[in-house]
Design a protein that fits this description.
The protein has 112 residues and is an all-beta fold. The chain has strands at residues 3-7, 10-13, 18-25, 33-39, 46-52, 58-60, 68-73, 78-83, 92-98, 101-102, 106-111. It contains no helices and 11 strands.
Amino acid sequence: QVQLVESGGGLVQAGGSLRLSCAASGGTFSIYGVNWFRQVPGKERGFVASISWSIGVTRYADSVKGRFTISKDSAKNTVYLQMNSLKPEDTAVYYCSQGGSWGQGTQVTVSS
């Protein structure tokens, strides 16, 4: 089974940017969608964005539309989440997933 590895999280001030990466290790992404979710303590994991690996169709949660961009690099077997105009409410652990596979998560903290 393909392992997903996230990276790129960190601490940033409100209004700043971060780019998260999700790399597929031990294989390649399948033709289906690759998703980003996020979770804060005490809340359910929530959908952020997705991209179809085969044709690149994207979808976003309303809360991030116009600020976040999901993209893919087939040659690097990697999906990215470019996050701009970050807000304190974007603070969460961000996970990528495809099918039943999940990464370990990467912490994003946005200070006010």
